[in-house]
Structures are given as C-alpha cells and as structure tokens.
Amino acid sequence: MTTSTRWTLLVLAVMAALTTALVFSLDDTPPGTGGAPSTQTARTHREADTPEALAGPRQRADLPPCPAAADNPGPKELRGIVVECAADGANVDVARALAGRPVVLNLWAYWCGPCAEELPAMADYQRRVGSDVSVVTVHQDENETAALLRLAELGVRLPTLQDGQRRIAAALGVPNVMPATVILRADGSVARILPQAFTSADQIAAAVKNALQ
After folding, report:
1. Thioredoxin domain location, by residue (predicted)?
2. Which H/E stretch holds residue 83?
3. DSSP state, 78?
4. C-alpha–C-alpha distance, residues 188 and 212, integer Å
C-alpha cells in the first residue's frame, strides 16, 4: 500500500467518524426541548416515581384534589399544558383548572429552604380566605416522592401540581427563582408575578389585595 493510499484511507475514516458524531449530537435532545407540542405530555417526575412507589407518600401527605376543570378556557399562556396532580396522579389541564376565581399560584421545590418556610404561610392564608381565592402550589422538581414527604412533614395540605420540567413557570414568564408566586385574576389574566418569599399570611394577603385592586 502506497503512502498516498494510506493517507486517503485515513482521511475517509476521520470523515466517517465526524459524521457519526454529528448524527448522535443532533439526536441527543432531551425530551420536551424539541418544540412545544399542543398538549404537553413530557415526563414531569422521575421514572422511579411509579404509582406504586408514590402510594405511601401520597397517603402520608393526604393532599386535597386539584381544582376541577372549568368551562372557562383559562389563562391563555397556560392553554395546552397538562401536568399531574400530586394528590392522585390524575392529569390536570392547567389553564382550565385555574379558571373562574382568583388564584395564588405558589412555585416551589422540596429542596428549597425558603419554600419550606413559606408553604405553611400559604396554607394559613388559604384557611383565612376560604373559597374567595384558591391557593395552588406547583412543585418544580422531578422528585415527586420528596415533594410529598416534604408537604407531609410541614403539615401543608394544598392542591399541588407536579411540574418537574417547570413548564408552568416558563409559560408565565416567571424568573428562575424559588419560591415565586403568581397571582391570577378570576378571568385568568396575570395580575402580578412575585419572585420573593413570604413569611406570613398577612404578607400574602397584602400582596394579593394590592395585585387585584
């Protein structure tokens, strides 16, 4: 084999390797990042969080059911987003579930220290306002088991959406910080986005009043 032939074969081998690497890099796209489907069904929790694995933590957390879907189409930013209800794993059409009354949407994660301090204040605020305003929490980490155990530990029983891919926050334009709270008007429009931690029901009540007046 001549030197020229050897160099030709070497160049062809390198080009083939580069082509293969390029194909793999283009195909190696995380689920849910290749475009927004009309009804988003990407995984919102870990594969380990099967219904069987979640049964015990769900029983301990004893969460109320998530809001039922209303006839109102709800916030336009959230239409088409479907996540799981942490209470029972049922699918929730987020926009329609949040329609019809003012909503305080609290975004958190199980590992967030300020979130753990804020959640009891959210529960206290919900007890005060009754049915006039709905407080719904959104867990923004794929570890749903840890979320349920954290809520059980805190004694917080609020409707909770499991959104491990942070699709709700992204749709609403919420900064990537936790905790954060979004106040929605009864017509579904966003009244205020509050990327801050609350420490008392009084603070939450004042923020909601200012946002909705």
Report:
1. 57-213
2. strand 82-85
3. G
4. 12
